[in-house]
Amino acid sequence: METDYAIIGGGVVGLSTAWGLLKRGLTVTVLDGDDGSFRASRGNFGLVWVQSKGMNQPRYARWSQQSAAIWADFAAELGDNSGQTVPLEQNGGYDFHFSEETLQATVEKYEALKAELDGDYPFEVLGHNALRKEEPHIGSKVLGAILHHQDGHANPLKLLVALAADVRRMGGQVLTGKTVTDVTKADGFRITCADGTIVSAGKVVLSAGLGAAQLGPKLGFKAPVRAQRGQVLITEKLPKLINRPSLIARQVDEGGIQIGATNEEVGLDDGVTQTGISGLAAEAIAAYPALARAQLVRSWGALRVLSPDGLPIYQQSTQMPGAYLVTCHSGITLAAAHARLLPDWLEGTTDAPDLEVFSENRFPVS
């Protein structure tokens, strides 16, 4: 099996990249893992989020903004082509605060970042009364919020389904149950899977999430990714209760309210704990007291994919030119950028985005 690009990893990051490459007339084969793989694309919170990104690196804020700005057009095209609707609401999002001190400290950070971005960072501060006009069900313990107007949320599972469908429609191969065990290079790349499948490719994109930690060194990457657990709760379907998403809760397109998420350094444990879900429930009720009466229907834990500084990694291998590492923990937010902009970087076109700040060179040799 021969292809222009072999993409290792069939989550949102890999499929978004595959989609963009196929749009440019290239041939693509996606190698996706088995059902036991850790899958951030199936367990994430579904935010298309700009605020708080890039506090220490404005280029990350700008990259997130670029993606958020083209997300609606990307979702519309993807839905039209695949026949699979990709629900998106992008009317802003909240950062809730339960104390004046944390609110003021965050506003100061946002103002500093706004200056770095030449004023392009549209947010406003809402006191409790102003917030209640926007969110009538907000609790009295919420003293205020930062409303960032570039934020929104999507249905990540429907995005994943639509991407897979449209990649196949355009002629891309999506091979499931494939665990890549080795990658070698002579005239081209030779990718070997545990079940004996072999793929020959001109270029390789490693977008395997946490799997990059094991496979990356074979391609000459440091791949310093780690897992961070996030636990999430889902309520029964409810009448409209929440108008805009926050990091605490969002009401999905189907009516249920998604509550999350924890930030736990527990290695590769994606389990659910009583302590974790109790803490989530308590914070959600403090924000929206009406949730105290809601029935919970399910919960889960999933693993984020994080670099040491939390920023994405975009790197071409120096040992195996033509092999690329693409990894981030904001695969939903950056899906549009990966689909519409990243292929230019992979192909080295003259209008490719400058992603040098996200290279592995920023990390010391371990």
What does this structure look like?
- This protein is α+β, with helices and mostly antiparallel strands and 366 residues long.
- It has three domains: 2-75 and 156-223 and 309-362, FAD/NAD(P)-binding domain, CATH 3.50.50.60; 93-149, no CATH class; 226-306, D-Amino Acid Oxidase, Chain A, domain 2 (2-Layer Sandwich).
- It is 29% helix and 25% strand.
- It is built from nine helices and 18 strands.
- It has helices spanning 12-23, 58-82, 100-116, 128-134, 156-169, 212-215, 274-287, 335-340, 342-347, and strands at 2-8, 28-31, 47-48, 88-89, 93-97, 123-127, 144-148, 152-154, 173-175, 180-185, 189-193, 198-206, 226-235, 249-251, 257-260, 296-306, 313-316, 323-327.
- The strands form four sheets. Strands 1, 2, 9, 10, 11, 12, 17 and 18 form an eight-stranded mixed β-sheet that branches. A four-stranded antiparallel β-sheet has the order 14-15-13-16, covered by helices on one side.
- α1 links the parallel β1 and β2 (28-31).
- α2 (58-82) crosses α5.
- It is globular.
- The mean pLDDT is 95.
- The best one-word shape is globular
Number of domains: 3
* Number of discrete helical segments: 9
The chain-level mean pLDDT equals: 95
The named CATH superfamily of the largest domain: FAD/NAD(P)-binding domain
Could you state the order of secondary-structure elements as H and E?
EHEEHEEHEHEEHEEEEHEEEHEEEHH
Q: How many angstroms does the end-to-end distance come to?
A: 36 Å
Structural class: alpha+beta
Most strands sheet: 8 strands, mixed
Helix content: 25-40%
Rg estimate, integer Å:
21 Å
| CATH topology group of the largest domain | FAD/NAD(P)-binding domain
Instruction: Tell me the CATH architecture of the largest domain.
Output: 3-Layer(bba) Sandwich
Bin the strand percentage. Answer: 25-35%
The counted number of beta strands is: 18
Low-confidence stretches: none
